[in-house]
């Protein structure tokens, strides 16, 4: 399944009929001089400096040919097999065209694509006028990324009829009447075709060159001048808006990343990969935004602090019976304090008394570089803040400490290294390996004694990536602490942004784009890569929202896991063979604790729902499936609430996400309390001898 450089399709097929009378066809798009120059520079940079030493030849050409069609039509709604084969004689010519700046094939394929979208849009409008049936026994496959291309227009017609029915039924089950549904979908289908007719040469180049770069690895891509500007806009949006980095994926605007401390992250209702299909300034006036350009959607979402925005959301992959959820967020300015490390204390009752377990949540690895460069001795950073929290009265006398890295997508590599130094004596933390074989070992160079030497746990999940994985891996390799949670994301690569104007592309009147290029890989000090595998916890937790489809392991062309030489380090072995007993106690609670069983059941239910990509187009059956899912979720939540002495909810509409018990954090506290007991017993045994 592709999650990088993909364009998510909307429609369910295309017909090859002519456009209706009176509809003017858009002028063909041709590459300009700047696209021709950019193609040559991007190709040279990829072949010379990308970590993956892949030759630019016929094999790459054939792969990029397929990838380009996938980028335009990943869900197989537009092209037929005949369309794919129509350009087959050019499969091995793309590398020659790119290296010389001739891009005729890429633009010719796009013209075919645009024709198909216009024709399918016309067909969709006809279906809306004819009326839709919600009482039959038809079904719809929501994920067609692995299916074959349709062999005929008639096959696409049948698929398209089901797609329109599916789009309409989702809105109908959300409570909209048919007149409003038809108006919404009519605007959507017309808008997607109209937007494509507004494409310029750079828009086509963006799609093609990102597909080309994506054949090296999923994190390398081309960013057009407009996309670069949108990227910068979104970074500002993340600081003064809903706190989300957005990206354009075909017809959809997608959440790429949630900014820690922002309204989107605090809501608990949004995740990376969610697609925004509607935006409104009031709950009663939400505008369909499928097919709109990213910049337009960004402008709709942005607004003054303390104002509200209402978003209609579709998950990354629709589960059976899924509908468009409406999320209400209050815009705000994200302060550094909200992104900074925060501490709390969890208490665990045991026969020997109350155990106080400190928790330090680190949303991201940050450092105020500008203040540091200006000579400010009190500049903020992850390591400084964590050290201050460890030394604070709040955490004084704790029996154990948890570093909570759930949802931490990374940040400053230097801070990951420095933070590791707070918990070990000295030694290497991570290795960086480049294409030319250069190996650099990053060490804890402070030479200071550990800031905390007691029982330690690190809590991670599938969204813990990059710098988070470096810290967790170091603690695991040193035997310093127990890693708890879900397998991490698995991003072990390093990227750099290159402005093409450095190579003479563009001029004062015409801006150039950027290339995001993978230049190195991270390796653990034990020599294993964090790429693909990430960090496997010592003790696993049942995560309901864990989704392996959004990890590095699901990405096409991800660089492989491998090993290099081990760094020179000495294990601390603070666990001293205690993992087996910790595992036994943890598994007993998983079996016996009602709240943990409920979380485990919910995790299994959600995994099953994600795997079910075929949904009924019968309204009654679809509603029944939704009701069953809602009832199962309500039961799981109420079981957790009961275990915490809270009143049960009568309906999911009563749910306050911030009031849901953090069952997994409490289990982590139990584990570290176990570790504290085992270490105390070990110390007493040694003293007795």
From TrEMBL:
<dbReference type="InterPro" id="IPR029045">
    <property type="entry name" value="ClpP/crotonase-like_dom_sf"/>
</dbReference>
<keyword id="KW-0732">Signal</keyword>
<dbReference type="GO" id="GO:0006508">
    <property type="term" value="P:proteolysis"/>
</dbReference>
<dbReference type="GO" id="GO:0008236">
    <property type="term" value="F:serine-type peptidase activity"/>
</dbReference>
<comment type="similarity">
    <text>Belongs to the peptidase S41A family.</text>
</comment>
<dbReference type="GO" id="GO:0030288">
    <property type="term" value="C:outer membrane-bounded periplasmic space"/>
</dbReference>
<dbReference type="InterPro" id="IPR001478">
    <property type="entry name" value="PDZ"/>
</dbReference>
<keyword id="KW-0378">Hydrolase</keyword>
<dbReference type="InterPro" id="IPR005151">
    <property type="entry name" value="Tail-specific_protease"/>
</dbReference>
<feature type="domain" description="PDZ">
    <location>
        <begin position="232"/>
        <end position="302"/>
    </location>
</feature>
<dbReference type="GO" id="GO:0004175">
    <property type="term" value="F:endopeptidase activity"/>
</dbReference>
<dbReference type="Pfam" id="PF17804">
    <property type="entry name" value="TSP_NTD"/>
</dbReference>
<dbReference type="InterPro" id="IPR020992">
    <property type="entry name" value="Tail_Prtase_C"/>
</dbReference>
<dbReference type="InterPro" id="IPR036034">
    <property type="entry name" value="PDZ_sf"/>
</dbReference>
<dbReference type="Pfam" id="PF00595">
    <property type="entry name" value="PDZ"/>
</dbReference>
<protein>
    <submittedName>
        <fullName>Peptidase S41</fullName>
    </submittedName>
</protein>
<dbReference type="InterPro" id="IPR004447">
    <property type="entry name" value="Peptidase_S41A"/>
</dbReference>
<feature type="signal peptide">
    <location>
        <begin position="1"/>
        <end position="25"/>
    </location>
</feature>
<keyword id="KW-0645">Protease</keyword>
<dbReference type="GO" id="GO:0007165">
    <property type="term" value="P:signal transduction"/>
</dbReference>
<keyword id="KW-0720">Serine protease</keyword>
<dbReference type="Pfam" id="PF03572">
    <property type="entry name" value="Peptidase_S41"/>
</dbReference>
<dbReference type="Pfam" id="PF11818">
    <property type="entry name" value="DUF3340"/>
</dbReference>
<dbReference type="InterPro" id="IPR040573">
    <property type="entry name" value="TSP_N"/>
</dbReference>
